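sorry for the late reply, my laptop died twice this morning and i had to redo everyting from scratch. anyway the thing you sent over, i finally got around to it. pasting the sequence first so we're on the same page, its 219 residues, then the predicted structure underneath. double check i copied it right bc i was rushing
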Amino acid sequence: MHKKEVIPTLFALDKENFNRKLTKISFSKKIHLDFMDGKFTQSSSISLNDMNEILNFKTIDFEIHLMAYEPEQYIGKIKKLGIKKVLIQFEAFETNTELMYSIETFKERELEVLLVINPGTDLEEVYPYFNEVSGVMIMSVWPGKEGQKFIENTYNKLLEIRKKFPNVIIQVDGGISEKNASEILKSGADILSVGSYISSNENAEENFNKLSQILNSIK
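ok and here's the structure:
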């Protein structure tokens, strides 16, 4: 049984918003950073160089979701930022060889790797890679934009994965709130990555605590 967690997501298109949100959610022991290269997604986030502010928060464990092609090109900067966990998009790779090269490159640099699966991707295509990574993250919205509605079919995906892979770590990202957190967890999720409900909300810590209470009530 994996430890269940709520991790606030920091989504920002400019440095000012990034730093403001970072301060707002710095109560959390872990923070999930969103990075977009503007090619894999329509929008681009701030650069990794502009994320240097995280170096001032030494007690927080940061992870980064790389919505980007050739994500291994960012390894140097990720290591300098002290990030230890990366989440890479399955759809960013054209071939099995490219995907395996990226996974192995991250692992060789002692980074934990999770594979991210978009809403439109057939799970059967991704299953062969489950044993190569530390876990998977199911996107319950389309990557690249904050504040989207949770895609209901995600529940079925979680149930299917949990049945086929009882020991895999499953993270879910997108459209999560107190209204659906319980069902997401009961369907098989271990980790909730939560953006707008926490980091873009005036009641960030209060909402984080609400989700934590829901999480603690799940047996």
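The first helix runs from residue 15 to 24.
thats about all i looked at so far, will dig more tmrw
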